[in-house]
Queue: 3 jobs
Job 1
Amino acid sequence: MALNNVKETGVLIVGAGPTGLALACDLARRDVRAVVVERAATLFPGSRGKGLQPRTLEVFDDLGVIDAVLAAGGPIPVGMVWRDGRRQGEHRMFDTPEPTETAPYTTPWMLPQWRTQEILLARLRELGGDVAFGTEVTGLTQDADGVTAELSTGATLRAAYAVAADGGRSTLRRELGITMSGETVDPNPVLVADVRIPALDRDHWHMFPAAEDGGPYTAICPLAGTRDFQLTAQLPAGTTPDLSLQGVRDLVAARTHLAADDVTEVRWSSDFRPRAALADRFREGRVLLAGDAAHVHSPAGGQGLNTSVQDAYNLGWKLGAVLRHGAPEALVDTYEEERLPNAAQMLGLSTRIHRGEARRGAATRQLGIGYRDGSLAVDTREDLPEQESKPESSQALRAGDRAPDGPYGLSGEGTLFDAFRGPHWTLLAVGTDTELPPLDGELVHTHAIPAYEPYGKGLFLVRPDGYVGWAGTDARDGLTAYLARCGALRTP
């Protein structure tokens, strides 16, 4: 995809990682014109973010890529601890609950980041979009109506909004003067590489603890759907990692029972120092930050890529509502309002897991993330029981919570997720025959279902990103005003 001369678009997305590609897919299905530019010549080639959490699988279900994701990946393997060349026994890093009616995906799924990106790019192309590779933003100015970007191709691009999804070293974030506050999680550098080791079995995530407590760890994890392993090796502070084939071979031979020649290929290698950092704000005028450009995580617990995809999913419908359906521009302000606190929460969790202060459990699956305290959570029901603001701490569904799945759908067949799938809103009349106002059937799909325990009874307006926006017992208690605020009121 080449960009030349002067072009106009709805959204400029800078960066073709999982964040930028997920956002581009969501905008494309909303018929919002978006241009994705990526300074590299190709997609990122490494496995880095290899674990997809259950909430991300739900997002991918809605975006139309879940079949490809499930076909290309596999479950997270059980750990196998080694010492002195002998297997010491299995180690389970997290619980594996069974799927339920309300949550069809309950455990993480292994998929190398490069494969996730390939799947999202293929979906984007199906939807009519593409990526301009080898294209960098060399200058950006903005005014009240949009942004003007100068590109390395010589082209000029005018867009209503720009989204910086260009990673933890985001050029756009620095140019905007947005700082990141954070801390070094661990002073020890970590080498990560995708390697071929035919001599090692692929049944386990192989773990090689240091001979002394507190020493550097080594782990070799088979990457589902490939012949590769991901090697991660913590190094002593102050060490400069040797990322060459011989350097990786020597490290593996020194820390495991494997011989150096057992590593037959290094397909990708990199190094990093675990840190946690959060942008002071996620918006500057018409430019928004998403993904690693807004928050940088320790890889412990597998939250970074997943939190980034949630950013894209939250932002996509809001930009679509403003640009396609006339929603007030203030709707975009709720992106930072909702996502910044959640990113901060996930950063804290990642850091605690890295330091051994927390276990990979329900919180890492991200099904409990919600927006109850945000301005888009409107609950008009009376006499609700007093409870904490955290969705996972209660049984009663409230506005701002993730909308559960269930065995009900169109004509009593399918599931609620089948009804939610797509760029529309969904109004559920659960166990009630209360009168509903006339609504645009394209923007808001309405379904009446019997009383269902996870919901109880009443009216539940489910946002395009799968969260309950408005809840009540009578549509006259602000439903139409809420829809107008979100650009979904257009009457038939």
Note: Confidence is low (pLDDT under 50) at residues 389-394.
Job 2
Amino acid sequence: MTIMPPVVRVGCWNVNSLRVRMPLLQSWLKTEGIDIALLQETKVIDADFPEQSLKNMGYYSVFWGQKTYNGVAILSRWPLSNVVRLDLNGTGAARCIQAVTHGLRLCCLYIPQGQDFDRPAFGEKLAFLKGLSRHIEPYVQDTMPTIIGGDFNVALNDEDVWDAEWWRNRAMFSIPERRLLRQILWTGWTVAQWRIPMQKNPATWWAYQGAAWPKQHGLCIDYYLLSPWASDLLLHSWVSQHWRGQHQPSDHAPIGMELRRNHPTSLAF
């Protein structure tokens, strides 16, 4: 079994179909030296998940898959335990999976996009955020470092969108969903990207339509939430935007961070 290094590299990516993006995923894992990966929108049922191919690359994997727009997975160079599939809004959609490796709790999620205010999907999105809030509430006080990573489909601040006035009161930037996510943050969670000083948060998603990528009309909607003990471990955070410009790309760019393994006051992780 691979020995855990003093610095662990965590990656998170909405791949928008493993069938299409598998070569890009493999290249990303290798070139960026990813130790732990949280994947969203895999779009494959469990029987079709490329478990053996990833095992050949040195990764253990746990997954919950469905066709169309769902599917989440966690990859790790070390065995994963305490695996839980979480239906946070009662729809049965495969949008959240959780596991533990070496004393590090990982929660991979894919929050519904919401479509528009008059659509059932928007209510499902708000219900998902409320369910997430209830589920992770105990982890703020837990000494086990917890990472929640994924496609949140919510841009929280003006700095997270290419044009705040254009996006004002549209789905992914509306007050109800931003309020629910802020309420989660106020209980003690840290957004990893916010620990890195910058004038504008780097975008992680660009629509396929409207030449959004060439125009750099992107939104920051993918990020990590860190519990207090996980926040203490954070060394660095980044967005690998160049993957959005590859051949047959996902509409999302992967995000990454480095964690130091040892907490200063504990043997956890």
Note: Helices lie at 18-31, 51-56, 120-136, 164-167, 175-186, 212-215, 228-231.
Job 3
Amino acid sequence: MANQMKVRGITVEINGDTTGLQKSLSKVDQSIKNTQSQLKDVEKLLKLDPTNTELLAQKQRLLGEAIHDTKDRLDSLKTASEKAAATKDNYDDWKAKYDPIKEKISETTRELKNLRICSHRRLSNR
């Protein structure tokens, strides 16, 4: 029987098959992509009018959403990793799937750190 977990509305099934994890992450990734697209649009508008307080507030809100979504992605990856490690019965399958998950955790951690730095810079520039 497969191990199943639910993280903030995301169900991940671990049994050597990461299909459920990939589907869950694709939803979070789509949300992150949409937020990043909106951030780019706001950045373009801010170049034209850097003192527009509405745009600055919108940018801060979008950065907050990006941080939240990226943290959710990181939490999902970490939980999936822990669940995979707990299923030692399928160690070979787990090991084959663990390395890509570990790399995604590292990438997402770096992205979250960069978003937080950007958000803090924006707040300190006010």
Note: Helices lie at 19-48, 53-86, 91-124.
